[in-house]
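dumping the sequnces here before i forget
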Amino acid sequence: MLSRFHKSNKKENKNKVQEQFVVFNVGQEEFGVGIKQTREIINVSELTSIPNAPDFVRGVINLRGEIVPVVDLITRLSLSNSSYEMEEDKIIIVEFDESLIGMLVNDVKEIIRLNVDDINEAPKITRGINKDFIRGVGKLKDRLLILLNLKQILSEKEVQQLDELVLE
Amino acid sequence: MDNNSQYLQMFFDESAEYIQMLNENILVLEQEPNNKEIINSVFRAAHSLKGMAATMGFDKLTDLTHKIENVLDKVRNDELVINEEMIDYLFAGFDLITTLVEDIKTKGEEASDISNYVEELKTYLAGDHTAEKEEVITKLDENFMIDLDNNEKNEIVNKMKETDYVYQVNTVLNEDSMLKSVRGYMVIKKATELGHVVKSKPSKEKIEDEDFGNEISLILVTSMDENAIIDEIEDIIDVQLVIIKQIEMVKSTKEKDNKSNSPENSSSKSNSKVKSFDVAPTVRVDINKLDNLMNMVGELLINKTRLEGLKVKSDIYQDILQQLDRVTMELHHVVMQIRMVPIGGIFNRFPRMLRDLSKELNKQIDLIIEGADTELDRSIIDELADPLVHILRNAADHGIESPEARQKKDKDAIGKILLSAYQKGSEIIIEVEDDGGGIDPDLMAEIAIEKGIATPEEIQSMEKKEKLNFIFHPGFSTSKEVTDVSGRGVGMDVVKRVVESLDGQVFIESEMDVGTRFTISLPLTLAITQALMVKIDEEVFAIPLSAISETLTVNPQNIRQVSGQDVIVLRESTIPIIEASKQLNLDVSYRDYINDLEIPIVIVNTGDKQVGLIVDELMNQQEIVIKSLGNYLIDAEHISGATIIGDGNVALILDVRNIA
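..and the predicted 3d for all of it:
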């Protein structure tokens, strides 16, 4: 009995592979990041800025004894018409490459499920954001969700390469 | 599955230990081919390795170790003589064992082929290498070999001094001697004069009764050499032949002697003996657990500091705080001690490496190791192996000259490399010194220009030290030809990088034709250190005390200028002063300090010079827990990490090594 139940359940899932995303705002844009990579969401605490660090690193915070760098998404994604309020803002802590990294965002809205089929490849330029930073665009009824490619956003090496590309 | 992987880990750990033991002991054996104790330990190690491999079901490894064990067995039974060729074969075998174990670790199976080696070994063994037993021994009647019981062995050990040898002296008297008992007695008497006679066969009484053939065997403990003894005894009338054979005895401590004294018991006790290779009874602990422990101690420390910051006015509070302070300090100390391991753990692989290198390079090199018992944090030691390999290879390849060249320079043909470690304050110093050709600073400068690292103008004003420092520049290799050993253009820059990532520093000194010395200084431990807290542009920074020579406040009137650079004169030495905020590229206006009444300055040791770092405010001194900024921010200049201070905020740790 039980085994049959399991089977049928599995089948249903196969038809509709779903993924969960944390939806957040930076400026006017709506973004999504995979829930599996998300560790927690915290209020903005005292940020210690780091001299000589890349400009998109806003600083570091103390997360229960661990030092976590915080990425400034506005700078990183070149979102020109946005700004941080700090008191209202949130930090989404994601796990990347076995270390924790925070992303400074304006607001965290909800957690949604998306069918994998509903995720499309990003057009070359999506509202001014470099395509490399985007994993795909999720369709959600009448909304478009920009799903971030953490690997590109959070690794500095890629930036240098990108900069070089631009120069060329 | 889990169980299996657990056994596998044990297998890896233990096989690494046995392989290391084999390598070390074979080196000793090469020096002392007659040392039975060593042969036995080598044999036991190979045997244990075989047993482990068989249990785990690694057929090739079992086969290989079995073959090697056979060779060692032959050596043990005097059927094979130990010579360089054989040692080479054994080393090749050990390398193959290492490769197989490595295969298992990385690929999960024994991928490497051992058949070639097994064949070679077979051919070698088939050749006539059996020990030519000295004529002497074969001549002797087996009955005349003297067996010693334990009491007699103890007697030998007790009588023996450091310089003493143990001989079996067999004397053959003229068959037609008329006064055999007298001659026999004279032999014994003479031997007693020469040293201590432990036992004779036949016994004294039997000799006096003339109840023996024409041979007398005796065990003699003396400091004289074989020839002198033969001369003395042959002087006795009617002595036809004196045959002498040295017997190996372990001389030093009693404890060791007990071991050598009871070879008869060895089979029954073999298990406990193998264990006794380990220096002390130990518990194997996963290094990650120790890291976790250290992290937790760190957090405890942070919270203690926060608690202190509360400043509650209560006697009980103060009391608890003091207790807490004591416990955290002790806990920290103990955890640090647990993490400390002797540096010998990496040093002991170098004798083997140097032996291989000197063969490869056709040089004669003596490696002298000092301070192998110096202890360092485990995580530092692990990282240190590669840099030391680079430096030692460089010393052997570029430093030590060929024997011919050395003789021309009136040097000993055998080059020396001294590898030493010692503690100096809260630092560990590791030195690699060779007595080779040294490094020509001008040649270094030339190459630097050639490779575009420096301009001729820059070279002009450079001191010798700075020219030598080019060796640490990436992409710099002085080797005229690229060899297997070194000179791939990487190496010394990697050394510098690794050492700096461990919060250490590396220096070079060199004198032409005298030698070169590399000095690595490292902090005792990475995790917790004393630091001075300072304020720079409203932010709190920590400067490790190990980098600070002193702090002072200076009146602007005492600031002088030397070629545009602000300096202060401190006890007759001129020290440049620079603004910390400027070095950190902070967005503030510079050189404001000149209007201040008092300028707080921290004198730091950067590289091998001193620099005065101007800060906004000197705060307190405290223990800090060093936390990494992660791979993400590893390149942030002049920042080596972060720590959490009393109010829960993050303070950055200033890396002053390259600050000026």
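The longest strand of chain B covers residues 415-424.
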